[in-house]
Amino acid sequence: MSDSKKDSDELDPEIADLIGVDDDDSDNPDFFDLFTDEAKDTEEISHGDGIAIKPKFAEITKFEEDPKPYFTDKDYYKIVLSGEGEISQKIHVLLSNFLKTEEPKDKLLHRERLIVAYWQLGASIAGKISRTLPVPKKMLLRFGVLLQTLISKEQRLLLSKVIENNDTGEPIFYIDEWLSKISSGDINPSIVDETKKGKGKKQARKANIALDRERAHKESVFTLMKQKALQITDMEALLMEKAAVIKKHELITRYGNLIAPYSSEQRTFLSEIQEFSKRLLQSDKELSLAIDNMDNSTEKLKELEEKAKEEGGEEAVDSQVLIEEFMTLRQMIKMTVGKKGNHFPILMQQYMRTSMIDIATRENVITTMAEVEKVDPGLFQRTFKRQTNRIVPYTILLPSYGEVGVCWEPYEKFNRATGRGRIGIPMFSKDLKTAIIYAMADLRWQTAKETASYYWMEEGLTGRYYQWFTDQKMRGDVKESFMQNYYLWVTKEADGMQKLERDVRGVFWRNIPFPQDLKDKLRNRGFVYNELYKKDMNRAMSDGY
Fold first, then answer.
1. What is the DSSP letter of 34?
2. What DSSP string describes 470-509?
3. Could you tell me how far CA 295 lies from the centroid of its own chain?
4. Measured distance CA(338)–CA(141) in Å, rounded
5. DSSP states of 293-340 as a string?
6. What is the pLDDT of residue 304?
7. Which of 216, 266, 375, 413 has a CA-to-CA distance to 445 between 20 and 30 Å?
8. What is the largest CA-CA distance in the chain?
């Protein structure tokens, strides 16, 4: 196949019959009808990657769209393989042998060879993501659809209804979108090995690092500005309320309706107003400094952007970086599957669910993440230098049969203040909610561990959990144990079902607290929750919480 005449030849009739290609053109639109309205990301300018920092997820009301004709093209398979060199012919032969063979031993051999060849094909396509790829190649990256007839007509229809464009404004991407972001320089590659790059590349990378740091600094300053402005307006509102109370006087009727002295409450308010005035002046001073800092950062950012362009740092990355990123995504997929899972990368009918709600589409993932955040409101909160921001990690939707989601990194190496971490969610898991919760648990653990640094076995969430783990003389992976218990925390304990060990519940209640309204509800659901609630009150009274 590839660049030879075989690219345009018809598929061998025997193979066509074997893989189920239908010659009926009635269900196949014209080739050029497939390539209208290419996907565009909806971007908001308030974060370095173009995605806004938001106070919470917006409610998703639309979960699918009208079906697209991508999988009805009879030339789909040929378009996927065309232009990819010798690997195209190799894939074709291996897939044909795999589908023909009935002998289990031979089928296993062809399967393993096909897996290796598939990743080579995917890497070849990934390296060209900066160009305008034909839709079938994008669908291979996005869903793992190599040959559309390997999934049923109903499943093809289901995938064709998946919403293509990211209109949510959230940093959640399919693989083809993710690689496009890497290619354009909007997002840094997951792994950067500077030892493999020349001097020019190193200089460009240094320029990009400086640019990333300044963008993070600017974002932090902007967040501080908003906080100080909000503090001022809140205190002004309180001042007005208290001033209104102070202005109301009782009248002394026996002396011609003279106003009476201030009441004890009014005198208290007068003292509070003095304190509010001091705090207002301090906040105003801090706001002024933040504005000056913001102006300086804006100017510095312009200089760094110019320098990055001169060094080539803001230019699109080369194909080798994209290939390396794709292989990093392969490692993520391996992590979601585990040693004993299904590592076959090609989407096939028997492995795919038949309901939209069971597939890790962008909209389904956001909805489930929002549900988890409701019971774990601190999930995406990050405090750095006394500034707290809600940072949703980059979430990559992986065409994988994995059972659990994974956290690749809790936050960016050079931007601990507002840099997003990276997590991967398998698209075709047995239970989507479980996969997402495990990813959130992994994020929770790794964030706490990085925060505690060298003292992760002694301090904070990881320290307290590790101490319980060792005290119980438990075996195995402590993080795996934590993730299992986190799953119970957000799915069972949040509903008042006591599934955790007493000490573990105490660690989670203190370090992964439920929102206050849920705590208020749970205190009436049993003695154990009421005792934890009382401890909260005691700590609050002693100012030790």
1. G
2. HHTT--S-HHHHHHHHHHHHHHTGGGT---S-HHHHHHHH
3. 31
4. 21
5. HHHHHHHHHHHHHHHHHHHTTTSPPPHHHHHHHHHHHHHHHHHHH-TT
6. 83
7. 216
8. 112
DSSP symbols for 175-236: HHHHHHHHHHTSS--S---GGGS-HHHHHHHHHHHHHHHHHHHHHHHHHHHHHHHHHHHHHH
CA distances from 141 to 60, 275, 304, 376 (A): 25, 60, 34, 33
Please report, as a single letter, which amino acid is at residue 446: Q
The model's pLDDT over 117-147, given as tens digits with 9 standing for 90+, comes to 999 999 999 999 987 899 999 999 999 999 9
Q: What is the pLDDT of residue 201?
A: 55
> Measured between alpha carbons, how far is 167 from 260 in angstroms, rounded to an integer?
61
- Supply the DSSP symbol for 525: S
* 240-274 pLDDT tens trace: 888 888 888 888 888 888 988 888 888 888 888 88
- Find the range with the poorest average confidence among 160-174, 309-323, 441-455: 309-323
* Between residues 70 and 11, the one the model is more confident about: 70
Residue 274 CA, distance from chain mean position: 46
The encoded tokens of residue 71 equal 């999988």
Model-level pTM? 0.76
Which helix (H) or strand (E) segment holds residue 174: the answer is strand 172-174
What is the total residue count of the chain?
545
